[in-house]
Amino acid sequence: MIEALMKEIEYRRSQLQEPVKTIYFGGGTPSMLSDEELKRIMDQLYRNYNIDPEIEFTLECNPDDLTPEKVAGLKRLGVNRLSIGVQSFFEEDLRFFNRAHTMQQAERSIQLSQDAGITNITIDLIYNTPQLSLAKWEKNLDKVEQFQVPHLSAYTLTVENNTALSHLVNTRQVRMPGDELAVAQFNMLVERTKAIGMIQYEVSNFGKEGYFSQHNSNYWKGVEYLGFGPSAHSYTGQKRSWNVAHNLKYIEAIRSGNRFCEEEMIDEQTAYNEYVLTRLRTIWGIDRAYLAGHFSADINRHFEAELAKYLKTSYLQSENNRIRLTSEGLVLADSIASDLFIVS
After folding, report:
1. 276, 316 in Cβ contact below 8 A?
2. Whole-structure pTM over 0.90, yes or no?
3. CA-CA distances (angstroms) from residue 258 to 44, 68, 254, 264, 336?
4. Sequence ranges of the domains in the chain
5. CATH class of the domain comprising 19-220
6. pLDDT tens per residue, range 269-294
């Protein structure tokens, strides 16, 4: 896998000329890699790309993978931001998520990272789960405050078709919470994070000043990026590509010099829909001036017509030519965006 990654990194070097400001090791369990393996990949990136000296270098990790030696090694490699997959600080929830770590390991992983000097930490938490009461959710948020974590990503549990969870729900072995509790947990999340100085800069992301994820913010702002490895996506202006999802097929394609990705050109309608979807979820909102300068008159007329319906409600607000969600609109972000879409 590492040999394949290194070949892809070299192969794509002509596709990104701009200085690289963020590196994100994720989409799996990169913390399982040894320091030597990570160093080989990093050296290859530095050989082939113009890496900004002030790079934001994030690595996703499981709490049970972090030891004092591991964290020290990551810091030596230049990792300056850790994304720790905590999910919950309750044992019964971790068992439900089929996570390998314990509550104690979740807490210890945060402390270890801070002790090693990596203070730019984000953790993931999940709400709207079958066993999560409002009181338990508040205790999860208490931990964020207790450990002074500067960034939090909090996601509602969704039931995807053809998954183990959907089977359990359909056979009534698991009962999902009602919408009322999900909204109450979301509102508590917004209130508690605000109280400890976090800014909700995206519907599911909260950070203290100076601790927003630069990498994810670039996605939402439409900045070009390259993704390496199985299932990875890349975006270069008007074109998007995605790698084969199967590990062995990816390795074999790279090794044999065969095609390992599919690609598509992004038409104006798709570009508009994606801009609306991503920007509406953020603190930056939809820029009317950007729409006017990048999309046709027909698309702008469609946007203004659909927007007018929502400006009469309490869900959207217009200020300085930017359209943003109100606190009431946040829970309806995707629904509102879909109403603003152009559907062929």
Report:
1. no
2. yes
3. 21, 41, 6, 18, 42
4. 19-220, 269-340
5. alpha beta
6. 999 999 999 999 999 999 999 999 99
